[in-house]
Amino acid sequence: MIRTGMLPWLKILVVVAAVSFVVVSNNGWAEKPPLLILDTDFSSDVDDTGAVAVLHGLADQGHVRILAMMVSSGDPWSVPCLDAINTWYGRPDIPIGMVKGKAVTHISKYTRKIAEEFSHDSPAGKDAPDAVTLYRKILAQQADHSVTIVTIGYLTNLRNLLLSKADAISPLDGGTLVRHKVKTMVCMGGDYPAGYEWNFYQDVPAAMHVVKYWPTPVIFCGFEVGRDIWTGAGLKNVRSTNPIRRSYELYNRLTDRPSWDQVAVFYAVGIANGQESDLWTRVYGRNSVHPTGRNYWHGTVDGQADHSYLVQRGDTDKIAEMLEQLMLSAPQ
Length: 332
Ligand SMILES: [Ca+2]
Description:
By secondary structure, this protein is an alpha/beta fold. It has a single domain (2-327), classed as Inosine-uridine Nucleoside N-ribohydrolase, Chain A. The protein has 14 helices and 13 strands. It has an eight-stranded mixed beta sheet with strand order 3-2-1-4-5-7-13-10, with helices on both faces. A three-stranded antiparallel beta sheet has the order 6-12-11. Strands 8-9 form a two-stranded antiparallel sheet. Helix 3 (47-60) links the parallel strand 1 and strand 2. The longest helix has 14 residues, at 47-60. It is globular. The two termini are 17 Å apart. Bound molecules: calcium ion.
């Protein structure tokens, strides 16, 4: 299913690859899996667990290498829950960073249960590594312009990263480090061309700062993109020992749910591979976040602006089926 969905991406792949210098193989994927960091709130909604399943599914197919995951939620169970899911997928050593300082915190329907029911070796959230320190360590070790970041939660960690100072890890301040090491950021946040969306209004100062100052191209996946793509009920068909199934069971009794975060992760892996999707097109321009938390889109700039947002053009049911198949993927 995933390969069928990918084939039309090949149409303009050669052009994209020539621009971004991604070496691709004949099947349209980069020969060397591109590097990706996931930043997630992983607590208040369950589409984050679906997105992590999509990411592991694509990693199992050899299409991405997961460098690290960062948690932007203050929920102390988020990190152990995430580590439990990574462990179940056979990647127990993915470094996980935790937001420090002021953090948006909600009671989760699933994080504590998953952390208690599934094995992992992660400390509680407050003892987990600082996300900014981990970002700096990971980024400092990578080649220039080699890392894709996908954020599917609040922008707290990324704001804190931008504001970080030079230190023993790197002589570069956060903004310069990001500008050197990051290729693209994909952001599930906002509503386009204008609106009011959870990931932005939960931490408005962070959203305002990141949207204004992030120094690489940013592709926004808005509320309206994932809203109509419903997935999750298919998890009834996998074994009960699957933690993704368990999280949906705890969240909404294994019924369907919009796929905001799955879309962002799926798109991010594609774009990290140098693929432009025929499932979504892009509108170029410039995003901004108002102090109320509302976001506004500002025109186009000859297709050269460093902000763009996705507009769906593929079939909703086919996208949902493709994403859900990835969510059902078992560890390799
Ligand atoms: Ca999320």
